[in-house]
């Protein structure tokens, strides 16, 4: 008894002591630093209602909640603490990861850069020496342009207008296929493209036929590319097995293809990704307890199996949300009348991105993403130096 | 890049060439998050011209400085993203 008394006495003094140092911000009539739940929901979630998504904006303005005493401005330390990346899947040419705690404005910038502003090498010029196939020269050239080339674009320079094609900015491939006169029809695939490390082999037609100087080719390499350390052990190849053309008996294609560095903004063939997209994390919330028959119906409704049924022990069952991540937001579960809309709330988490990158093979997907972030940094740096 | 401000450092429009939504939208976010920015927005005057106009109005500081700080913030965010991402990838590669 006495010991418990002294204990409560101590607690009293502690509380009093703390009271002495209470900060003005923690007094009950001062607004708290936290948003009220309904506002927090609107700030952080997109509500996917039966008719249309609601509340899709992000609240960017720093003073949006000033009247409630909540600061909405950016603090970098806070950002660094909250920001999180979790890799879900990573293979040679595909990756999926979760990026949490970032505004869509910036996540979208990364996506746009990946699609349109990361350079790769692609065939830009095709010198056709002979083409008797049914595919027109233009179509054939276009098809060749879209073939992904497996080479690190960072090892090359851009070829600008006044530059001569050299070993630093051009990759030359040769394609020479002929279908036998009596043989069956032939399929030409991208493997037939042979890398010419010493540059073009086609001679430019010179006006002066008896000129003593060596006949010029279409490139001016100072050395062979396979003598360079970066290519000596790994020759440049293209993505195999892509059908380029079909040849009938006696038909022939002979050409040279020159690949240069470029970005997806100019032409999609330079895009380093097959595709790159993100979706926001789905959140499925049961606003009421759904039991028995209704739970069964709900479980059946969802085509991707988001819901499961849980045994409550006393013979009753209830629906649970087992795999919210799989939700495709088809809204099938809230389609059958208003009572369903009341039972289930479909939402998306505004700052949680499920990011997928599919590389075409020039660089692995994780390198592509880091390069994309670097490009955004460079853009900022450019603006800063222009302003200074 | 032009800087058009009419005798008033606080309000300015910056015309960024060779840029598009990618940078402008990200910058608008960091600008909006800066308490010194009273207003900011961007527009692309013509879709076939590679140019965006970023409008910044501030509470007192020169608009140029606020925009510069916004770029700085964006850059620091990118650096955080990059280091966090690299770490996550390295972790995943170690134990997938
Ligand atoms: S919206 Fe579609 S996928 Fe998502 S939980 Fe409902 S039925 Fe399933």
From TrEMBL, chain A:
Q: Which residues form the DNA-directed RNA polymerase RpoA/D/Rpb3-type domain?
A: 94-386
Any idea where this protein resides? Nucleus
Q: Where does this chain mainly localize? A: nucleus
Example of a GO biological process term:
DNA-templated transcription
Example GO molecular function: protein dimerization activity
Keyword line:
DNA-directed RNA polymerase, Nucleus, Transcription
Q: Name one GO cellular component term.
A: RNA polymerase III complex
- Any Pfam family matching the protein: RNA_pol_A_bac
Which family does the similarity line name?
Belongs to the archaeal Rpo3/eukaryotic RPB3 RNA polymerase subunit family.
Q: What is this protein called?
A: DNA-directed RNA polymerases I and III subunit RPAC1
Q: Which organism is it from?
A: Punica granatum
Question: What lineage does UniProt assign to this protein's organism?
Answer: Eukaryota, Viridiplantae, Streptophyta, Embryophyta, Tracheophyta
From TrEMBL, chain B:
* Pfam families xrefs: RNA_pol_L_2
| Keyword terms of this UniProt record | DNA-directed RNA polymerase, Nucleus, Transcription
Say yes or no: keyword tRNA processing present: no
Q: Which GO terms describe its molecular function?
A: DNA-directed RNA polymerase activity; protein dimerization activity
- InterPro entries noted in UniProt: RBP11-like, RBP11-like_dimer, RNAP_AC19, Rpo11-like
GO CC, sorted alphabetically, is:
RNA polymerase I complex; RNA polymerase III complex
BP GO terms, sorted? transcription by RNA polymerase III; transcription elongation by RNA polymerase I
- Where is this protein localized, as stated in its record? Nucleus
According to its UniProt record, which protein family does this protein belong to?
A: Belongs to the archaeal Rpo11/eukaryotic RPB11/RPC19 RNA polymerase subunit family.
Q: What is this protein called?
A: DNA-directed RNA polymerases I and III subunit RPAC2
Q: State the organism of origin.
A: Punica granatum
């Amino acid at each position: 008894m006495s010991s418990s008394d002294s204990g409560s006495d101590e607690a009293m003094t502690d509380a009093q002591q703390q009271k002495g140092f209470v900060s003005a911000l923690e007094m009950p009539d001062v607004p708290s630093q936290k948003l009220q739940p309904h506002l927090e929901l609107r700030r952080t979630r997109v509500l996917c209602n039966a008719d249309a998504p609601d509340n899709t904006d992000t609240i960017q303005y720093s003073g949006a909640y000033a009247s409630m005493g909540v600061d909405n401005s950016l603090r970098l330390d806070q950002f660094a603490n909250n920001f999180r990346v979790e890799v879900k899947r990573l293979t040679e040419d595909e990756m999926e990861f979760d990026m949490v705690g970032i505004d869509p404005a910036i996540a979208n910038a990364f996506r746009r850069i990946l699609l349109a502003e990361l350079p790769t090498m692609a065939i830009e010029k095709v010198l056709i020496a002979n083409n008797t196939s049914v595919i027109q020269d233009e179509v054939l050239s276009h098809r060749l342009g879209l073939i992904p080339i497996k080479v690190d674009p960072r090892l090359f320079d851009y070829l600008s207008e006044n530059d001569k094609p050299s070993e630093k900015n051009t990759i030359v491939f040769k394609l020479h296929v002929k279908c036998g006169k009596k043989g069956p029809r032939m399929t030409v695939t991208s493997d037939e493209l042979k890398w010419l490390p010493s540059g073009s082999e086609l001679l430019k037609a010179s006006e002066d036929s008896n000129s003593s100087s060596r006949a010029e080719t279409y490139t001016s390499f100072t050395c062979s590319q396979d003598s360079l350390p970066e290519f000596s052990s790994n020759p440049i190849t293209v993505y195999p097995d892509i059908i380029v053309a079909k040849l009938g008996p006696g038909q022939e294609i002979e050409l040279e293809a020159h690949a240069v560095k470029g970005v997806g903004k100019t032409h999609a063939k330079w895009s380093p990704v097959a595709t790159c997209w993100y979706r926001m994390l789905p959140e499925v919330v049961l606003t009421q307890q759904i039991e028995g028959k209704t739970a069964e119906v709900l479980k059946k409704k969802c085509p991707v199996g988001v819901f499961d049924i849980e045994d409550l022990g006393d013979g009753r069952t209830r629906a649970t949300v087992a795999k919210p991540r799989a939700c495709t937001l088809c809204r099938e579960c809230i389609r059958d009348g208003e009572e369903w809309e009341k039972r289930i709330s479909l939402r998306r988490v505004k700052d949680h991105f499920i990011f997928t990158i599919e590389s075409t093979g020039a660089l692995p997907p994780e390198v592509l993403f880091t390069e994309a972030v670097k490009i955004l940094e460079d853009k900022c740096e450019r603006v800063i130096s222009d302003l200074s | 890049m032009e800087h058009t401000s009419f005798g008033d450092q606080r309000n300015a429009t910056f015309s960024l060439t060779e840029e598009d939504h990618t940078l402008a939208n990200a910058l608008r976010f960091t600008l909006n998050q800066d308490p010194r920015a009273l207003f900011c927005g961007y527009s692309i005057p013509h879709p076939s011209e590679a140019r965006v106009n970023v409008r910044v109005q501030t509470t007192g500081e020169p608009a140029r400085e606020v925009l510069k700080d916004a770029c700085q913030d964006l850059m620091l965010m990118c650096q955080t993203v990059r280091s966090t991402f690299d770490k996550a990838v390295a972790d995943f590669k170690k134990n997938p």
